[in-house]
Structures are given as structure tokens and as C-alpha cells.
Amino acid sequence: MSQSPTTERPPVALRTEALEQILVERGLVDPAVMDAYIRTYEQDVGPMNGAKVVARAWTDPDYRQRLLDDGTGAIAELGFKGSQGEHIVVLENTPTEHHVVVCTLCSCYPWPVLGLPPNWYKDPAYRARVVREPRAVLAEMGLSLADDVAIHVSDSSSEVRYMVLPERPEGTEAWSEEQLAAVVTRDAMVGVATVSATQ
Ligand code: FE
User: Fold this and answer.
1) Which CATH superfamily is domain 12-190 in?
2) How far is the CA of 44 from the centre of ligand 1 (A)?
3) Cβ contact 118:99 at 8 Å
4) 107 flagged as catalytic
5) Domain ranges of the chain
6) Has 106 been annotated as catalytic?
7) CA distance 75 to 18
8) CA distance 67 to 62
9) Å from CA of 13 to ligand 1 middle
């Protein structure tokens, strides 16, 4: 006996569809607009934008300074702006200072540079624990930091979204901006990973 398609899908997907159907039926949302919105954030907006910002900062000291002074403005110079990115603060990681970003309240995230947040970022366990025991949480996520590296946890809100400027990996001195952007990951820009030259 074959299963019906509905039994194979998670309840949350069914609930989402039901909600969408009701909103469309009542004329509260236009499905074409919603599809376009989803397509934008799936295809056009994502960590590749943030990676370009990071690569520029690594290769252009003046840009790096502007980015740290006024994240939103410097990011907009590269054409990235919009919803959930009205006020972005960029935090620079160094050999002695490590920044990691969370939204303890919900899942605030800098959409124009990182796209939509990953599931773990929205997980109540990450949101609660990274504040109390960041070193342990980072180690569990595969990032073991030396004891002499200070960890700063920044709590995003509807007013301020944070993005981490990771350290440039050694051995990349001769790399082009494009090569550099290709190794910058989403996780490194949230601060739960570092950038490796071999990715
Ligand atoms: Fe939030």
C-alpha cells in the first residue's frame, strides 16, 4: 500500500501550507509576490554577499575601516541593503578577540549579507547556551579557541544586526578578492567558525 503524500511530510510543512492557503484565500498575500520574495532570498541574497564584503575588507584597508565605522554604509557601497539590514554593525575578529553572534530573543539576522538564518541559529539551545558558555558551544560546533582568546557574544535585535569580519587565513597573501570571497563561509560571518584557506 502506498502512503499518501501528506503523511510523508512534516507537520510544520503542512501547517505552513495551510496558513499560506488561508492568507491567499482571504486576499492578505499575493502568491506571486511571496514566490518572488522567497526566490530572492534563496537565489540572490545569501552568504555570498557577506563573503564579498569580507574579501573587500581584507584587500582594501580603507574599506575595512569604513566597514568597522559604519557597517550599513560600507555594505551598501557593494550594493547590499534592504530588509533586516537597516543597521548592521561589523565586529572584527583578531588573534586575541573572537566575536560570535546570537539573537537571544528570536532569530534577528543581517539578511542582506547573510540571507536567511540557518536552523541552528534559531534553536533555543544555541540562543540560550552561547551566552552562558560560548567556549563550550563553539567547541561543540567545531571551533576550539585557545584560553587566551577573549570571546564576545553580541545579541542581535530588531534595531541592530551583527556580522563578523573573520580573520584572513594565512597563506592567502597573493589571492585575488574573488578567491578570498570563495572561502568565506556563513558560519565564519556569524562567528561559529574561522576561515580556512583550504575550503
Ligand atoms: Fe531576533
Assistant:
1) Nitrile hydratase alpha /Thiocyanate hydrolase gamma (3.90.330.10)
2) 22
3) no
4) yes
5) 12-190
6) yes
7) 37
8) 9
9) 22
